[in-house]
Amino acid sequence: MAITTNLTSSLNIYSVLYNSFIFVGTILAIVSMFIRGNSGSIVTITAYSCMAAGLLLVLGLLFSSLSGKIKTATDLLQAIQLNIGPFLLMAITIVYLLLINIIHRERIADEKVSNSYYLFSIFSVILIAIQMSLALNAMSKQQFKETGTLPLMTSNFIYLIGVINVIMSLTLGTILKYFVTDG
Which ranges of the chain would DSSP assign to H, the alpha helix? Predict the structure, then answer.
């Protein structure tokens, strides 16, 4: 009985932790849409860092919940596709955005980037906010708490938005790498 209570208590603390990281990161990302210059660059990097930390915690929880449930390679592929995949795609996208913002921080802070950068950055943040809200909503449902699985429609919708966001993120990387302005 005490072991179950301690496990439930630690999972609740873990849940509060990853929800907090994701929520704070999403709010900071939305705020960063309205700030330019050095402050905007710092807020964006902080936002992506918080979201990445929260998603890595969720991925850790999902991977640990797989132990004992996977019998065949097909089970593993299905679990990755339906449950882990949407979070993994979000995490990879956010880490990529974090890296390009860190690499090109000085140019972003000095506003020596194309105006297209700001447009695509806003679109990307909006898509991330939608993905995060869908994920947080699905994770608060009883199905996720009991089985660690997302509803199929939610999972597919997060994938769809994620693929669009990957395209936006790669476009942002191209803009930052090849298009420079004098300020």
Answer: 2-32, 37-66, 73-79, 85-103, 105-109, 115-139, 142-147, 152-178
Q: Calculate the alpha carbon distances from 7 to 1, 14, 48, 77, 161 in Å.
A: 10, 10, 30, 28, 34
Tell me, letter by letter, the H, E, C secondary structure of 125-147.
Answer: HHHHHHHHHHHHHHHCCHHHHHH
Domain boundaries, the chain: 2-178
At position 27, the amino acid (one-letter code) is I
CB-based contacts of 158, cutoff 8 Å, min separation 6 = 86, 89, 90, 131, 134, 135, 150
- The count of C-alpha atoms lying within 13 angstroms of the C-alpha of 25, restricted to the half-sphere facing its C-beta, is 30
Q: What are the tens digits of pLDDT across the range 115-140? A: 899 999 999 999 999 999 998 898 88
CA distance to 74, 88, 109, 125, 131, per residue, from 105 (Å):
43, 25, 6, 17, 25
pLDDT averaged over every residue in the chain: 86
Q: 137-158 burial by CB neighbour count: b if 16+ within 10 A, else e?
A: ebbeeeebeeebbbeeebbebb
Q: Does this model's pTM top 0.85?
A: yes
